[in-house]
Amino acid sequence: ICLRREDQAGAEPYLKMAAELDPKNSKIQLLRARVAVTRNQPEEAERIINSSPELQSDAAGKRILFDAYVGAHKIPEAAKLVLEVFHTNPSDFTPISTVAWLLAEKGDIEEAYSVVASVAESQISQNHSGPVLEILNRIWTKAPTHIPTLELMRLVCERTSDESNLLQVLEALGHAHEEAGKLEQAEAAYQKL
């Protein structure tokens, strides 16, 4: 009842009692971990999930562990787990965009790009390119001359017929290639523009 009312503090003692009565019950442990994440106790959630191989292999357990890593600012650990979490629910792009942005924020542009690029094709083919383009735009703000990000943005814009963004991306791509001394690629981008 407490969890339905989103009263995590009220639910915690009952979950603890239930866990003492049935310590092997994975559903109770998952609920305890979820409550810990909600109450901003990521280390406790991580401890609960990592205490059982069954919870570690469970899709809900992986998502809770991912959320715990993000909550504890353990970005490398979250990055290692993000694709597994995403593939359990491909309609939810939040894990990908969260990790990509955290990586970009700390200056790891190549890793941020790599996370997005690894799922971009499947998202584009399923007509879910909006979130991909959104996070690529955010990475672009951090690294305006990162050619792989711009190339992927160009591809998304071309495949989705997004003319308005395509013009901006082609101009930036031409400039980035020019800055990198790749004059043929710069010329090709400017010609498309």
The topology string of helices and strands comes to HHHHHHHHHHHH
The secondary structure category is mainly alpha
**End-to-end Cα distance:** 59 Å
The value of Rg in angstroms is 21 Å
Number of helices: 12
The unreliable regions are: none
Helix content: over 70%
Question: Sheet bearing the most strands, described?
Answer: none
- What is the total tally of β strands? 0
In what range is the share of β-strand residues?
Answer: under 5%
Mean pLDDT: 88
- The geometry reads as elongated
Describe this structure in words.
With 193 residues, the protein is mainly α. 78% of the residues lie in helices and 0% in strands. It contains twelve helices and no strands. It has helices spanning 8-21, 26-38, 42-50, 53-57, 59-71, 75-88, 94-105, 109-125, 129-142, 147-159, 163-179, 183-192. Helix 5 runs antiparallel to helix 6. The chain is elongated and about 65 Å long.
Describe this structure in a few short sentences.
The chain has twelve helices and no strands. It is mainly α. α2 (26-38) runs antiparallel to α3.
